[in-house]
Request: fold
Amino acid sequence: MKRFLFLLLSILLLLPATASAVTQDELMQKIQDLTRQLDELKKQMDDLQNQQMTQQADVQEAKEASKKFSWLTIGGDYRFRYDYLKGTVNPHFNFAGFENGLYEHFQNQVMFGNVMPVALPNGINTVGVPIDMNTLMAIQGAAAVQDEYTVKNKSLFLNRFRLNLKAQVTENIAVKARLAMYKIWGHQTSDPVTGNGYFADRITPDGAPFDGQVGHVPLNNTLYVDYAYATWSNIFDLPVWFSVGRRPSTNGIPGNYRQNEAKSGTSGVPSFLVNYAFDGLTIGAAPDIEFLPGFYAKLCYGKGFDGGYESDLPGDNTPDDVNFIGLNVVPIDTDTFHVEFQWNRAFDIFDTFPDSGVKANLGDIDQLGALVTYKIEDLGPGDLNLFGAAALSKTHPSSEVLRMDILQPVDTNGDMIPDTVVMIQNAPMAGLLYDIDPNTGMPVDDSSHTGHHFYLGARYDIKKTNTKIGLEYNYGSKNWVTFGPASDDMWTNKLGTRGNVYEAYIIQELPEIPVAKLGKAYLRLGYQYYDFNYTGSNSWIGAPQKISDLTAESAQFLTPLKKAQDIYFTFDVRF
Reply:
């Protein structure tokens, strides 16, 4: 800078006096002005340089923060749901209603001391209650004999909230968890859905549903752990993984189509065989096979019930643990084509809900299923997704049966004890897909029973409008047994139905610009129609009976629906 000023001054001094009309003072003023401008320019350059350095530091700090917290991923979803439910009940004799009426009368008699001991022919001592026949018929008529009638719920509203967490702990070890709340508007119980005794997978006695249903059937506003598990991948640099914890074995393929969800990946199981949050573990492998793109296979184990402590005392009848194993093989898994095979076995299946007093192990159940999905891209203005599934189930009954304390107006020989109702304790009622003859106490056809199932569906995705239109059909035979009490259906898991179920739905994604990483929102409108052929859908206890053959004298523990429908609407937001 000094050299520049000296050079400029020298040039000015060399100029002839006649060539410049400026005085020495004016010249000095101009030099001072030029110096001040240069100082200001230098200051501006310094400020710009400092600003750039600050911005670079902020970017670096943001990068470091991003690296620091990239191990933790948070997401989730909220759903509002509305259902209009309507069903037709077939004529039947409601054994549970009759039992409740007798029990109430029995309690009243005990209060007044009007009880008498009764010795039945088989030597079992019971308690008899003197009761006149007019009262007996009144109880029977009011509580038990049912002609055909219609049931409705015109406005079932529900809230569901789920929070997903993923922690990438090391390069190959991750922990995933999901917390879920699901409740009915205006209730802290599931009574509006489960309190009517229509289906075994929609009963929650004393607020204790199946363990694997928690977070999947409406209960209350408590945030429960739906799943939580750790996965170790690339073990010893091999394409092998091990996973343990509460498993994400719900809403698997192909049920994800109507839920507008992506396929669950290697952690999922086919929803038509299993829809239940198991506590268990998995070991799997995904070798690179050129002619089998996406191949993987896994062996799964789950525990459905822990029997607790056993003793060596005489007469100890502690039930055995209930265990499940499964083998899943996926020979092809690409964006457009998926093939899957699954085999499951349930060992020592329980006679009631895990937390409601299991007393017996009814036997084993095998399941075998196959699934194919195929996507036809750019068919007209969208893509067409197709799927087809088929499955078999086979029971292997044990010698144990469901037993209950019952009140009845007859003895074990079927003869009326005059004016007396008898309480029989621990009476045998039913086994694994077979009944007990009430007159002899002996099983009726306690052999193995095989059932089958078909499930077909299509969904057309219109790309321009983000509209998805789907149709589904499934059929289950007389003895079909699945294990899916955690399904999203209100009446009962449609894939465990012994009969036909038809469903149509339309999904409209909202044209919103996502801010959250997984952000999107959509509306879903659907219709389900159930046509039941046999009783006992989604249950393995007792022999199925053809619904069209039932009369007002046909004793039933569960209320037998013959037709049912559900119009539902959801507003889903994911983040």
Notes: The radius of gyration is 36 Å. The helical segments are 2-14, 24-69, 95-111, 133-143, 191-194, 256-259. The chain has two domains: 2-67, 71-574.
